[in-house]
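Private note to self, pasted from the team thread so I don't lose it. Backbone tokens:
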């Protein structure tokens, strides 16, 4: 029998937020930005809770941590200079993204959850705290990692934002460069030319000429993934219809890049069915989402993105902040 997904809510003067047991995922979130206006920036997949799907896909939504981050199978067609590795487990984005978390404590403004990893994992458990800022429309989130033994793992946060009818402007962040995926991210669908470097989201090399990804949704169905290196937070998304900016802040010393995932109705198979529109803004220390299964050539500018170091018996805490303001 499939485990029931539990959901817990936070409500405060400046909004409301919900966290679910599956993946510890945070969504929906509503920020009240004054004058009776609000913005609800986190994505909830249109299939909501589909018992036919497994792991994180059952009720995909919002934001969650990924340890270890990334795919468990290398994509086909990688250039010959890329080496292959075996993933340490069978869970895309890690055990914690695909299993049930337990509520440890709840107060008026805070939820504390945890999940124990399998006994053979280098990770013992994760603790996740979601806390409302009582004085502003903002959420403070922390993840504390307890390791059984010293290990370096690709790591990322996985905030996934809604693209409403009014669209989203991707203001983004100051950065060094942007890199496209080593192969077409979704074969036969993705349009960005693989294995390229470029400077701006407004002029991305693509199959039909330069792509402008600074305003979403895009005109044509597609799925794209790129890595923004040296991304200096905050990363800003602007919601014109709501007249609001939504900001994501984190420690760039730990997570130097952002993976930008544009899901623009390009996947037509179940459960996506051409109806999934979202933008993932994923602060990461990883080689794309391939660090578990691919060894990039030493010449690749992102070759040193090997992950975060976790030490046995020394908990490591990663913090970040999600907020909104009126325009």
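Design output:
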């Amino acid at each position: 029998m499939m485990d029931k997904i539990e959901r817990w809510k936070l409500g405060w003067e400046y909004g409301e937020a919900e966290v679910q047991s599956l993946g510890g995922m945070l969504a929906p979130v509503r920020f009240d930005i004054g004058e009776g206006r609000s913005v609800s920036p986190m994505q909830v997949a249109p299939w909501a809770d589909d018992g036919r799907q497994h792991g994180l896909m059952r009720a995909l939504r919002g934001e969650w941590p990924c340890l270890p981050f990334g795919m468990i199978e290398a994509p086909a067609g990688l250039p010959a200079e890329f080496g292959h590795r075996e993933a340490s487990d069978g869970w895309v984005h890690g055990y914690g993204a695909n299993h049930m978390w337990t509520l440890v404590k709840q107060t008026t403004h805070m939820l504390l959850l945890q999940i124990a990893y399998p006994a053979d994992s280098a990770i013992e458990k994760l603790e996740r705290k979601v806390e409302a800022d009582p004085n502003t429309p903002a959420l403070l989130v922390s993840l504390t990692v307890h390791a059984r033994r010293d290990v370096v793992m690709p790591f990322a946060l996985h905030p996934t934002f809604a693209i409403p009818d009014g669209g989203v402007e991707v203001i983004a962040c100051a950065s060094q460069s942007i890199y496209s995926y080593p192969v077409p991210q979704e074969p036969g669908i993705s349009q960005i030319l693989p294995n390229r470097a470029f400077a701006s989201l407004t002029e991305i090399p693509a199959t039909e000429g330069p792509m402008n990804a600074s305003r979403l949704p895009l005109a044509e169905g597609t799925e794209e993934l790129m890595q923004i290196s040296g991304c200096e937070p905050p990363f800003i998304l602007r919601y014109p219809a709501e007249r609001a900016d939504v900001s994501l802040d984190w420690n760039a010393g730990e997570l130097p890049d952002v993976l930008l995932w544009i899901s623009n109705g390009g996947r037509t198979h179940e459960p996506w069915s051409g109806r999934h529109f979202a933008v993932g803004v994923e602060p990461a220390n990883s080689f794309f989402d391939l660090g578990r299964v691919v060894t990039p050539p030493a010449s690749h500018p992102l070759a040193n993105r090997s992950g975060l170091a976790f030490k046995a018996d020394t908990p490591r805490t990663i913090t970040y902040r999600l907020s909104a303001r009126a325009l």
